[in-house]
Design goal:
- The chain has 2 domains: 2-53; 60-120, no CATH class.
- The longest helix has 41 residues, at 2-42.
- The protein is built from 5 helices and no strands.
- By secondary structure, the chain is mostly helical.
- The termini are far apart.
- Helices cover 72% and strands 0% of the residues.
Length: 120
């Protein structure tokens, strides 16, 4: 029975040593990433510079907070359906907002990829 206990203790120590080593590796990587972010911030480029340095563009996110109010103000059907099917009305408001935003950007000569993501 005693060799089994010593075997379990040895296995436990090995696993603990592996976790400690992994923790130290991840901690070093975290400090390196924080140092890189600090350098980007010191150069004055901020988050946009950090995103560009990573090869990804900065993004703008828009959420319509008063979709039902807009629907009731802009459409007679919006008034009728706002109480019956609010999710359907919100979805239609977002589609219309997306269409108008694309038209507005195009009218001002902005070349942009505008996507409508369906939330859950």
């Amino acid at each position: 029975m005693e060799p089994l206990i010593w075997g379990l203790i040895a296995a436990n120590l090995a696993v603990t040593a592996w976790f400690i080593r992994r923790h130290l590796v991840l901690r070093r990587a975290l400090f390196a990433a924080q140092k890189q972010l600090d350098e980007w911030g010191a150069s004055g480029s901020g988050a946009a510079g950090a995103m560009a340095a990573l090869g990804r563009p900065a993004l703008i996110s828009v959420e319509v907070l008063n979709a039902l109010e807009l629907a009731t103000r802009e459409s007679r059907l919006g008034k009728a359906f706002a109480g019956l099917a609010p999710e359907l009305v919100r979805r239609e408001v977002y589609k219309e907002f997306h269409r108008q935003l694309c038209e507005h950007l195009q009218a001002h000569g902005v070349v942009a990829e505008v996507r409508l993501h369906n939330g859950t």
